[in-house]
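Researcher: I'm preparing a figure for a lab meeting and need a structural model of a single chain. I don't have an experimental structure, so a prediction will have to do for now. The sequence is pasted below. Please return the structure as C-alpha cells so I can convert it later.
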Amino acid sequence: MCGICGYVGRMNLTAEQLKRMNDTMYHRGPDDSGEEIYEMPDGRQVGLAQRRLSILDLSALGHQPMHSADRSVSVVYNGEIYNYQELREELADYPFRSNCDTEVIIAAYLKWGIRCVERFNGMFAIALYDRKTQDVYLVRDRIGKKPLYYWCEEENLVFASELKPIMQCPGFAARINTRILPRYLFQQYINAPESIYSDVYKLEPGTALRFSHGRIRKWKYWSVRRAYHEAQAEPVTDYREAKETLKDLLRKSVRARMIADVPLGTFLSGGYDSSLVTAIAQECSDSPVKTFSIGFHEEKYNEAKYARAVADYLGTEHTELYIDEQDMFDLVDSIPRYYDEPFADSSQIATMMVSGLAREHVTVALSGDGGDEFFCGYNIYEKVYQAQRLDLLGAMVHGVCSMPGLKRARLESRLPFKVRVIAGNRERESKTQFGAGSYPAMARAMVREEAEEAFSPVHYPVESDYRVRDWQIRRMLLDMDTYLPGDILCKVDRASMKYSLEARCPILDRDVMEFSYRIPHAFKYKDGDKKHILKDIAYDYIPRELLDRPKVGFGVPLDKWLRGPLREQLTDYSSYDFLARQNIFDAKYVSDMIGGYLKTGDAGPATGANYSKLAWSFFVFQQWYETWHTARHSIA
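Model: Understood. Here is the structure written out cell by cell.
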C-alpha cells in the first residue's frame, strides 16, 4: 500500500514542487519515494510520484514510477493485485525484471489495453501514462478500497491518494464545496464523486478516467447494480452448494491476501466476520497467525474477552490493548491530519488504536469489512424489512393526517414515534433511508442560506436505479455504493495508513462479491437471522457458543465529550461572530442550536435533544477547517 500523486497539463511544476506534494503522504509510504516529470510533444507535462510501503519484492526493483521495458508506459500505483501471479503466467512473453504486481499492470496494459483492469482482482488506484497515445489513465478498484482524488482546472488535471498533495499544488484555490455540507452533516462523510472542495472529485469505485489532449472521459468498468443483476441471472438455489462454494472462495481470497514479504496478522474483534477471516487465515498458515484486539476497562463495552476466547480456540498469537476514554480522546486532534476532509464517523478512533497496535508487530492486517453489507448484517436491514411490510399502513396514516380540515401537526404528535416514521416515509427514491426525524431539515438549515436546489439532497435519491422491489436488498446495494466506500473503507484506509499499515479485506474479493449476488437473499436473511450463510460457515471453524451473542460495540461518548472537555472549543466554533466571519454556516441558527445543545444535552427535552451527532459533525468540520484553513497551520 502506498500513496500516489501527479499531474498532466501546462502547469510546468518543478521536480521540487512535485516532491513537496508527494512528501505530504510520507505516512502512506515511508520506505521509498519517487518523482519524475516527462515532457509531452504538445507542450504539456506529465508528473508521476509515489510514496512506497514495501510489501512485495522489497528490493529496489519495486521502485516507482515504474516503466515498461521499452519505456512507452509509466505507472504509479497504490494497492495490491491479488491475482498478479496468475496474470503473470498469461503474460510470460513480457521480459519481467521484478516480482512486483506493479510490473504485471504494465505488461497487462501493453497486451490488453486499459481494459486490462477488468482482469485485476484486488484493491488499487492506478495512474498510467502511455507515451504512444499521449493518454493518462486513472483507475480505481471495483468497491473503492483505495482512494483517488482529482482536481480539474482548465486543461490541467492533478491527482492524489489524499487531498494533501492537491492542497500543496501551486495555484490550488481551496474553495469549499458548501453544496455538500448538509449531506455531510447528516451522513458524517462525503461520498464520491464529490469532495469537500469545489472542482476536486473522488474517482468513483469501479471507474476509469482518460485524460487525452486536455479532455476527460470517464466510464464504469464495474458497478454494483450491473454486477448484481448479471449474477442474479444465474442463481445458486441449492443451499449446500452455495455454502461450500462461498467457503471455497473465502479460503482462496484469504490465501491470496496472505502473500506478502513482510509480517502479517488479522484484526480480531470476536465478531463473526473477523473471526471467520482469522480462522481461515489460521487454517492456511504453518504457524500461529498474529491477531490484534482493543479492550475497554468498562465491562459493559468490553468485547476483548470474546476475541481472546476465539484466539485461544484457534491457537493464534494474540495481542490485546486495553484503553480508556482518555486514550481515545487523545486522538481527536489527529483526525483532520489524516482524514484530510471532514469525516465524522467516531468509530475511526478505535480503528486508529487497533491499527497502531497491529503496526507494532506487522505491516499487513486482514479485516472482516464487507460482511455486513454483502450478507445482510446491519440492524437497519431488520428495520427496513419491517418498514416495507408496514408501508401500506403508513400511507393510510399519512393520508388521514393530510386530510383537509385536520390539524396535521397536532394529530401526528399523538402518534407513537415509529408510526410517525413509517407514515412520513413517502419519498419514492429514498424509501429505505427513513427514521431521521428532523435531522435532515436541521442539517440543511445549518448551512448558510442558499437556493434549496443548490444543495445535494441529504439522502441519496437513487433507489429506483437498482430495480429491486425488496427494500432490504435495495438498502444493501445502496450501502455498497455509498456507506461502504464512503465511510467504512475510507475510515479503515486513513486509520491504517496513519501508522503505515496495509489493511486487506478478503470478503471484498471480486469473486466473493460477485458470487454473493448469486446467493438467494433467503440464505442471507433467514427467519430473522441476519448474515445466516456467513454465520453457518463460521460455525464450521468456531463453536457457536463463542460467537452467538448480542453485539456490544463501543460508542464514543460524544455528548460527554462535547459538553465536557470539548465544550469551550465547540463554543468558540459556534459563536455568532466566528460563524459570521467564516461565512459558511447560518450564524444565528447554528449559534442558537449549539447553544441549546450545550445546555440540554442529548437527554434534554428542548432544542438540544439528541443532537450530539449533528454537533459532532459540525465540530469535526470546524476542527478540519482550523487545521487546513488558518494561517498558523502548515500543509506538510
